[in-house]
Amino acid sequence: MKVDVYNLKGEKSDTVELPDEIFAAKVNVDLMHQAYQRQMANARLGTHNTKRRGEVRGGGAKPWKQKGTGRARRGSMISAQSVGGGRIHTPKPRDYTQAMPQKMRRAALRSALTVSANDEKIIMVDSLSMEKARSADLAKALSALAGDARKLILVPDKSESYTNLIKSGRNLAGTKLLQANYLNIRDLFTCEKVIIPLASLDVIKSYLG
Fold it and tell me: 137 and 208 in contact (C-beta within 8 Å)?
């Protein structure tokens, strides 16, 4: 698959061949769904906690006598029916982590990249290195490339060459910067445009090709 390569002014500068094994792979919807569900589940902290009957204070004495009051029989004030009593079937801390083999995760990424390529969400750029860290300059370049769409920028690495880019883009609304080797299915699904420098394409090829 051949796509155009643009510069930061939004002008076409070249073309590049995207590898078919990554950007024209067989789309497996069920596998993408499983990978997405796994990522969302692994993001959960699982720290929710409520007190059950054995964890609240009180309940030592019978609240009132068994008969003669006209009220329901009650043996303790820590039952769930009482204000301040213990809760029933409510959440306790747990681990939501789901496992998924690496081959399946990478196959899901290939499917997601193929869908993105078919939907023309991918924008290839020759380079995103910046001489100065200026958010206004980066915002102008991104507007020329993708307009007002929600953008995912794949940064090749965190070397000094891309420090100014990272500083310029971390506060831009509707823009997320992500290292290419951390590419994940959630970010691919939630963005409208994926901006990939040629250097990031090489990183993607290194582990998905």
Answer: no
Domain boundaries defined on the chain: 2-43+99-208, 50-90
Q: How far apart are CA 168 and CA 182, in angstroms?
A: 20
**CA 135 to chain CA mean position, Å:** 23
Q: Which helix (H) or strand (E) holds 115?
A: helix 102-118
Phi, psi at residue 114, to the nearest 5°?
A: -65, -45
The dihedral through the CA atoms of 6, 9, 10, 13 has a sign that is negative
How many other CB atoms sit within 10 Å of the CB of residue 50? 12
Distance CA 64, CA 41 (A): 47
pLDDT-based confidence at 185, cuts 50/70/90?
Answer: very high
Q: Which pLDDT score is estimated for 128?
A: 87
Phi then psi for 175, rounded to 5 degrees? -130, 130
CATH 3.30.70.260 fits 2-43+99-208, yes or no: no
